[in-house]
Amino acid sequence: MNTHATNTHTRSDGIGLPGQTVIALTLAGAVGMGGFLVAIMTLMEKLSGGGLMLSSTGFFLIGSFIGGLHGLVLGYIGREPGSDKRRTLISEARSLLYAMPALAVAWPFTTWIAMTIMSRYTGQTEPIVLSALSWAAGILLLLWAASVTWRAARNAYARWPERETGRILVPLTFVALGAILLNGNPELWGTQLRLTPVGAVLIAAAASLWIVGPMLTLGLRSAHRMNVGLPAWRAATGRGSGKGSGRDLNLTNTAIGIACGLVVALIALPFYRDPIGLPSVWQGSTVGLAVMLLASRALLDEALLRVGLTSTILWLAWRYHLGSRNTASVLAVVGAAVVQVLVYAPGAIAYGLRSDWTTVAYLGAAVLIPALIFGTLYVRRGLGAAVVADGSAIAVVGLLAAL
């Protein structure tokens, strides 16, 4: 009995898995960005070899900050089952102190990794050996960080109440975002660099993990609390009431979604016909590519703006007594619609329409009104109806504009 108590006390005084996660990701971020990233960029001639130590140190500091921040979040949500929240925060604070000397030890190894190109050009034995040993140490560090991250991620996933729905929506949004980025080949904001296919996949993965994932987690939790957004999903998985209720509900929602999509398309159609003639998803695309793009855009809009944003605003409005449930629903739908207009406004301005009033009219007819309709569908009929309506509107606009 006393032995058990002593062991428990010892574990509580250590840093545990949360602290290991903080240290591991802090070091992995520092070595990964300051060492491996710089080495690869210089070897590929994407980064100048001049001032290599300064560049490596800068990336080292940035990587340590990013890795430490991720480690704090993952360490907390990925703590062991039954762990005390207060002790978890204390162990994470302690681990940050331990990470400082660890970073000091890792910095020389990181520098030698970054200076791989110099070792290769000099051809001297000592620099080559130091770089090789540093690469080996860095790889072992990354493997340890991956092992710790996997354990914490498994705990976080097991603690996720909405994991049944989330494990479907998050991968789908990753595929949708990846398809859009791969097809559009967009320019990175604030730079003149365009995404490569590998860069598009990496950015889609990072956005899905650290932006889409948290938004959907918060949105799904809010939707569960308010019992909105996913009635069709509950029915389809056998949680609806009555035999065959899932099939009947899905058919009804599909029909309503298509009808609303047709209305939205007719409202927005004038902007895609002469004399304005904005491009649609069908222009310059094969049928298969166009269908994939419209499905991806519809899924992203509804997952982020409806599940992630509308559900959260609805719960917050109801939680802080801003009105009745109906009032909270209206606030949520309107709030998410306004956010969607702000998101789409830069793209609308970039179209270079004939006047500012034409741009305002486009944002009202093709963004605001659809967002209000899709938001209402989400709250009243569920995510499936909103996605069908969104996708139908995009498809119908493209088809009618081509006639």
In short:
With 403 residues, the protein is mostly helical.
Taking Cα atoms only, what radius of gyration do you get, to the nearest Å? 26 Å
Helix % is over 70%
Q: What composes the largest sheet?
A: none
In terms of structural class, how would the helical and strand content be classed? Answer: mainly alpha
Gap from first CA to last CA: 81 Å
Uncertain stretches of 5 or more adjacent residues: 1-13, 231-246
Shape: globular
Structural notes for this entry:
There is one protein chain. Helix 2 runs parallel beside helix 4 (85-114), helix 2 crosses helix 6 (125-159) and helix 10 (245-268) packs antiparallel against helix 13 (356-381). The chain has 2 domains: 2-159, no CATH class; 227-402, no CATH class. It has 403 residues and is an all-alpha fold. The model is unreliable at 1-13 and 231-246 (pLDDT under 50). It has 14 helices and no strands.
Tell me the layout of helices and strands.
Layout: H1 2-13, H2 16-43, H3 52-77, H4 85-114, H5 116-122, H6 125-159, H7 163-184, H8 197-226, H9 231-236, H10 245-268, H11 287-319, H12 325-350, H13 356-381, H14 383-402
For this entry, give a set of tags:
mainly alpha, 403 residues
